[in-house]
Amino acid sequence: MSEPGHIVFVVDDDASVRKSLGRLLKSAGHPVDAFASATEFLQREHYDGVGCLVLDVQMPGLNGIELQRALAQKNYCLPIIFITGHGDIPMGVRAMKSGAVDFLPKPFNDDVLLKAIDQALARCRQERETRAEVADIRSRLATLTPREREVLEHVVTGKLNKQIAADLGAAEKTIKVHRGRVMQKMKVQSLAELVRIAEKTGLGKA
Amino acid sequence: MTEPLDKLGRDIEEQLRFETLLSDLSARFINLPADQVDAAIENALRRVCECLGLDLAVVWQWEYETPGIFTLTHHYRRVDGPPVSSQLQAAEAFPWALRQVRAGKSFAISSTEDVPEGAERDQESWRYLRIKSVLTFPFTTGGGAPFGAISFHAMAMPRAWSDALVKRLELVAQIFANTIARKRIEQALRESEERLRLAMDAAGAGVWSMNVRSKLVWVSDRQRELFGFAGDENVTFDSFLHVIHRDDRESVRTAVEKALQTRTQLRVEYRIGRSDGSVRWIAARGYPYGQEKSEPDRLTGIALDITERKQAETALEESRAQAATVMNSTDDLIWSVDPERFGLLTWNKTFREYFLKGRGIEIKVGMTPAELVPPDYVPFWHDIFSRAVREGSAFAEYLVVAKTRTLLLSLHNMQRDGKTFGVSVFGRDITDRKRAEKALKDNEARLASAVDIAGLGFYEVANGEAVTFLDSRAGEMVGLSGEQTLGTSALQFWLEHVDPEDLPRILDLHRRLNEGEFDQITVEFRYSHPQRGPIWLQLLSHVTERDAAGHERRTIGVFRDITTQKTAEQESRQSQNELAHAMRVSTMGELAASIAHELNQPLTAILSNAQAAQRLLTSGRPDLGEIREILADIAADDQRAGEVIRRMRSLLKKNIVDRKVIDLNAVTREVLELARTNAILKGVSLVSELPTEPLPVLGDRIQLQQVLLNLVMNSFDAMQSLSAGGRELVVRCQRADTHGVLVSVRDTGSGIPPAILPRVFEPFFTSKPDGMGMGMGLSICRSIIESHGGRIWAQNNPDRGATFQFALPIAEDEQA
After folding, report:
1. d(C-alpha B220, C-alpha B205), whole Å
2. Which of A48, A162, B135, B591 has the greatest number of C-beta atoms within 10 Å?
């Protein structure tokens, strides 16, 4: 079920909880890396691979919610499953709104936790794929000349060559040539495809 | 030769004749009685003229006051001519001659055809009178102003006035002047005497004169008549004194002696006793006379009968004294002012004291309002005085300067012969009356509004049987109106609608009221109002009259609808209960949450460990070493969970309350302060007996206050159905024999039935009606007191009521 190459991080200040969770997750086949505090986790080198975070809410020092915020700022791509000794509903709502995968009151059954972890890992992979695609498109965009980029920006807004020529003060024929180059560099076959990938990078939304 | 001799002889002969004439005249005129003077002068003029061959001689006289008007008093003429007017304006006819005689100068004019300068007008007059020569002498005596003149005239032919002739005629003129002057003086004296006599007679005055040496007194007829002396009686100073009233004699004698010694006017008033027994008042005035530098030899004066004046004076004084007595014996202010300046005329003592009060003003006649009151008030007084003068009277209320007193003023103008001569003012201080009126009004208003606000309805019952009065509000409260409100049926109606549970209590209380056990009761009860349904009423009955047997004859009372209050009380109690419950729940919740969290950690570890072990066991090749480890961890976490629970338990057991050393006296005082308003409302007299020494205990101030307040409120409730006079609550704090503090709350209520006495501190036990109490108060009190290491108990008093007491250990060691 689980694929190699991912890590489940556990952050909980209670040693026996940390230890027992590590055991449980390992027994379910997940590689585990556990930390006693949020600060300790932040000191670890930036993790870029597939994974998720099982995070206790109530901790001395930086608490779970604060760690969630700090990770978002550092552009981490780690889905979080909160675990808490208090069934504090407002806090759970806040955590879920900030993108948590689940909010589990302690004690919890292993299947609930493991299901949440699978979910989290799937979300992580999805996210990584999206990010990779965007990166690819961006690298293709980088190959365009400034003039081609200008033409691309006009094309994705749905303008005809004639209009673009008028806007940029060039001959319609020249625009047609630029447009062909753009399609080629961006590795697309149709205008629709070009618009779709442009959207992913945030282009042409004006 | 013979001619000169003849002439000489004639001259000598003429001189001799004149000398003879002159000595004759001189002798004749000395001591000539006044009434013969005129004839003698006429005769003398004739003889002089004949002797000297003069044609006309005239004597003029004038008054000192009118020296220009000459009166012809005597004349003699030998030659005819125009008549000489008997009176003439000398300034017109003889201006020059007038100047001469008024200056005391004589003049001689030998020919009127040759007159001195300035005498032209005189010359015309003389020519008219055919006078050829004039010789004039003014009449003077002793260097005084001229009062007349004599003129000798020649008419037939001019005549040269020889010095000898002038000298001779000057002698004649002098004789005449003296005689005429004497006559004028005598005449003036007679006239003034006559005038004096007339004056004396008119005034009824007697005249007297006493010879100082002989003590003989000359008295006028009037004086004789006044003093009752006989017509021929010789009057002496002694006989004079004899007539004088015995009490006045000495003062008259002294006054006379003083006047003589100091040569000053004698002024004395005295009474004389007359032979007919009547008493007259006499005023005497007199002056001492005599040579200067020697003692006076005469004392002359007048005596006036002033009896009528004296009587009038006495009467006036008496009436004045009466008026003054009346004026000064009143607390009202009386004064009067003149009608022009409104200056003070008269005033009484009260007025003086009123205006003097702390103002340092000395009140004087004539003081105007401006001098008596501050400037702001002056227009008021001017206005009201003017109104009284104009309209005859005026009335006003006057707020005095300090605005603390009110005067009721009544002003009237005072008239004499139809003419206003003053304004009388009567001022009455009506401050107290005003105040009383206002207080009465205020009280009535207060009572009315109190009755209104309190929503009281009044009723009256006769002989405990029949309603005799029921006001509309009371009618509404019991559900009666119109004719139904009165009589025995009305009373029956009330009783029928009283809640059956409350009825026995009310009937019992009223029976005791009727029998005289108390005069007043207050009772609260439920009532089935015919329209409104169940309501709460409060009833206060007071017996105002009893018959000989002591049974009520007349009872008055008030109804009050206390439904709202009762509902509110119930609601408040309910919400308190709810609040307490909510608090308890929330505390439990918090506690539970805290326990849950503490327990969740080991439980989570246990569960995870157990499930990990299960997975390991189902994996096919379990690592037994790990499973052993897991089981050891599970056991450790289980122990940890047990530890949490133990810790919780001990935490719960520990002092959650805030314990400090506090003074129980202070706690008690605070509670009594809280309860005081309630006590007043409930008609309970609250007595506290606290020692001066502090009573330190270790405890929670709030909890101990709760206990005491609970006991006090319970006692209030226990005394609710008593008459107001009988409700008394005594709270006492004291040191108990052993090391403790004892607090007791003693009421005069109905006490606690012995059967339930042992159970009063049990939870949910209550003697109050359903919904009135939940029976937790005393139970909580016990918990609190016991948690403080003390104990609480209740007992009935030997006489009446119950006493709740609690004892706490004293905290002497911790006190410092």
Report:
1. 9
2. B135
Say if CB B733 and CB B668 are below 8 A apart: yes
Q: What stretches of B657-754 show up as alpha helix (H) in DSSP?
A: 664-681, 701-718
d(CA B364, CA B360): 13
CA distance B454 to chain A (A): 52
* Selected residue of A10, A18, A23 to mutate for chain B interface (largest B Cβ count, 10 A): A23
Q: Which residue has the tokens 């208090």?
A: A86
- The residue among B780 and A186 whose pLDDT is bigger is A186
Per-residue HEC secondary structure of B87-151 comes to EEEHHHHCHHHHHHHHCCCCEEECCCCCCCCCCHHHHHHHHHCCCCEEEEEEECCCCCCCCEEEE
Q: Which tens digits make up the pLDDT trace of A15-26?
A: 999 999 999 999
Q: Indicate whether B587 pLDDT > 50.
A: no
A14: closest CA of chain B, how far (Å)? 7
Q: Rounded to whole angstroms, how far apart are CA atoms A133 and A127?
A: 10
How would you classify residue A26: left for phi > 0, otherwise alpha for psi between -120 and 50, otherwise beta? alpha
Rg (CA), chain A: 24
User: Which residue in this structure is represented by tokens 């020494």?
Assistant: B693
Among residues B401, B383, B400, B388, which one has the least CA distance to residue B434? B400
String of b and e for A145-173 (b: at least 16 CB within 10 Å)? eeebebbbebbbeebebeebbeeeebeee
What residues 638-697 of chain B have any CB closer than 8 A to a CB of chain A?
Answer: 640
The minimal CB distance from B615 to the residues A17, A27, A109 is found for: A27
Sheet hosting strand B740-747, strand order edge to edge: B685-689, B728-736, B740-747, B802-809, B791-796
Taking residues A83-111, report their average pLDDT.
Answer: 82
Note whether A110 contacts B: Cβ–Cβ < 8 A.
Answer: yes
Say how far apart CA A83 and CA A12 lie, in whole Å: 9
Q: What is the dihedral angle through the alpha carbons of B670, B674, B680, B685, rounded to the nearest 10 degrees?
A: -30
- For residue B387, what are the contacts with CB-CB under 8 A and spacing of at least 6? B394, B411
* Cα–Cα dist A155/B140, whole Å: 165
Backbone angles phi, psi at A157, to 5 degrees: -85, 0
A106 at B interface, C-beta within 8 A: yes
Q: Is 0.80 surpassed by the pTM of this model?
A: no
Q: Is ipTM over 0.85?
A: no
Residue in B597, B608, B637 closest to A24 by CB: B608
Query: Taking each helix axis from N to C terminus, what angle separates B2-29 and B163-203, rounded to the nearest 10 degrees?
Result: 10
Residue to mutate among B591, B599, B604, B644, with most A CBs inside 10 A, is B604
Burial class from Cβ neighbours inside 10 Å (0-12, 13-18, 19+) for residue B460 reads middle
- Tokens 């000298």 belong to which residue? B167
Percent of chain B at pLDDT > 70 equals 91
User: Which of A1, A13, A27 should one mutate to test binding to chain B, selecting the residue with the greatest count of B CBs within 10 A?
Assistant: A27
Phi and psi based region of residue B254 (left: phi greater than 0; alpha: psi -120 to 50; beta: remaining): alpha
Q: Contact, B327 vs B341, CB < 8 A?
A: no
Separation between Cα atoms, residue B624 and residue A96, nearest integer Å: 39
Q: How far apart are CA B383 and CA B396, in angstroms?
A: 11
Q: Is B191 helix (H, G, I), strand (E, B) or coil?
A: helix
- B630 and A CB contact within 8 Å: yes
Chain-chain contact of B611 with A86 (C-beta, under 8 angstroms)? no
> Residue B705 above 90 pLDDT?
no
Contact A110 B636 (CB under 8 A): no
Write out the two tokens for B745: 């709350």
B-chain CB neighbours of A14 within 8 Å are 601, 604-605
Contact status of B615 with chain A (Cβ, < 8 Å)? yes
